[in-house]
Amino acid sequence: MQEQLKIELEGNSIKFNNFEEIYFPPNCIGCGDTAQNRFEKHLYGVFTPKYDYKKDYSFSFPVCEQCKTNLQMKTGLKSKSGKLLLISTLLGVIFSLIAFFFTFSLFLSIGIVVILFAIPLINYKQKTNSKVNFDDFLRIKQDKDNTDSVELKFKNEEYAKNLREINFAKLKKEEMEQSKVM
Questions:
Q1: Where are the beta strands (DSSP E) in the chain?
Q2: Do 43 and 137 touch, CB atoms closer than 8 A?
Q3: CA 58, CA 153: separation in Å to the nearest integer?
Q4: What does the alpha-carbon distance between residue 131 and residue 71 come to, in Å, rounded to a whole number?
């Protein structure tokens, strides 16, 4: 016999037990604006000695265009500005060594490194300043003792309440339909 579906709300945290699908309000999980896009997030379960299976979860969260762009922004050496920063720093070191050997000026060498490092660094910081980490909006945690339980902890407590109400209404509707069939 399958355990009963449960939804528990505690502050800005919601715990779903034995669910198949979670329904989200049509608002962005980041800023609360109306969202037309979806952001896919996967939670991969682990094998535990208590269970002979592992359970993976896939979520499709509503996000607005701006939040989606900021979530998917490339940083580090994956971005063009990150590669430019690395190349210019390497060139700065090479040119400063060459300048030092020809002029024996330590200040000129340091100046070359600083200029060829600082300008691309400022450019990189400006371009990646709006990068958003998904964990700033929402944290997803699977219970190690119960693979059928997932906890979603939202930054916005009001969003968590709306999510609970939507899913609770869907759960009641499904129970009513099942009781009509029997």
A1: 6-10, 13-17, 37-43, 57-63, 138-142, 149-154
A2: no
A3: 16
A4: 6
Length of the chain (residues)? 182
Please list the pLDDT of the chain residue by residue as tens digits (182 residues).
345 667 777 778 888 887 778 888 888 888 878 888 888 887 776 666 666 666 777 888 888 888 887 777 778 888 888 899 899 999 999 999 998 888 888 898 899 999 999 999 998 888 887 777 777 778 888 777 777 778 888 888 888 888 888 888 887 887 777 777 66
CB 28 within 8 A of CB 69: no
Measured CA to CA in angstroms, residue 141 lies from 15, 56, 161 at distances of 9, 12, 18
Measured distance between the N- and C-terminal CA atoms of the chain, rounded to whole angstroms: 17
> What's this model's pTM, rounded to 2 decimal places?
0.62
Residue 120 · residue 88 · CB < 8 Å: yes
